[in-house]
Amino acid sequence: MIIDASTAHRVGVDGWVYGFPELNDQQKFLVSNSKRIANPGCYPTGMIALCRPLVDAGILPENTGLVVHAVSGFSGGGKALMAIHHAGEAEPWGAYGFNLQHKHLPEMAEYSKVGRKPLFCPAVGSFEQGMVVSVPLHYDQLHEKGRSGAAIHGAIEERYKDSRFVSVRPLNETSDLERGAFLRPDSLNDTNDLELSVYANDDDGMAWLVARLDNLGKGASGAAVQNLNLALGLDEDAGL
Questions:
Q1: Neighbour order of strands in the sheet with 2-4
Q2: Is the CB of residue 95 less than 8 Å from the CB of residue 76?
Q3: In angstroms, what CA-CA distances link 119 with 51, 99, 105, 155?
Q4: I need a surface site. Which of 10, 27, 82, 119 has the fewest CB within 10 A?
Q5: Is the dihedral of CA 27, 32, 33, 36 positive or negative?
Q6: What is the predicted pLDDT for the residue at 176?
């Protein structure tokens, strides 16, 4: 059995299964019965988790032009970037990907089921682990039945109601934000958890979808262990 953490087998390669078990009702079965598993990217894990339920529910139209903002801990850049940050030589926050050809774009388009590459705006912060992925929406981008915070939140909550690792916070939940305002990117560090939030303003017709995860957990090695457990017939959370 092979679990590939690269981008080589994630999109358009026969014989490989995408290793996001929560993708739909069939994906866990497919992972469990595969010998070739393509581990998802960290950024796509957040974006896909937020958007795929909305497409499946007939809320988010296919081919919608989305914008995805994300910030990751610097460990996502590998040893070279980690060394720069540990030496105190890095900028406090740095956006990148200005060629608009980020390696995760095909994966986002394919498995979100939107079918169109989003405008992706990634950044690295001066913290080692953790990640926040955001998808802002105007209601006029959505089918009419999905034009409310309750409808958006309900579709996402329904998808993950039986999930071991993916949780959905209450609609417009702000009581646990830092100083009542700030969503920390590192609150799920050293876990395989993925936490989804929906913030909505029905009066102005807009929503802000947010995913929080450990880029080294559910965004990398944690997801690999989860997939390994499923493929070997072990408890999904063994070792996690």
A1: 2-4, 36-38, 17-18
A2: no
A3: 14, 11, 9, 24
A4: 119
A5: positive
A6: 87
Write out the catalytic residue numbers: 42
DSSP line for 27-54: HHHHHHT-SEEEPPPHHHHHHHHHHHHH
Q: Which amino acid is at 98?
A: F
d(CA 91, CA 142): 37
Cβ atoms of 160 and 19 within 8 Å: the answer is no
Distance CA 177, CA 189 (A): 16
CATH number of 41-218: 3.30.360.10
Tell me what pLDDT residue 81 has: 84
Q: pLDDT of 92-114, one tens digit each?
A: 899 999 999 999 999 999 999 99
8 A C-beta contact, residue 133 and residue 195? no
Among 6-10, 85-89, 171-175, the minimum mean pLDDT is found in 85-89
Q: Is 158 helix (H, G, I), strand (E, B) or coil?
A: helix
Structural contact between residues 200 and 173, judged by C-beta atoms closer than 8 angstroms: no
Residue 227 near residue 37 (C-beta atoms within 8 A): yes
Burial 21-46 (b: 16+ CB within 10 A, else e): bbbeeebbebbbebebbbbbbbbbbb
pLDDT tens by residue, 3-19: 999 999 999 999 999 99
pLDDT score for 27: 97
Q: Which of 57, 52, 61 is nearest to 139 (CA)?
A: 61
In the chain, what are the domain boundaries?
41-218
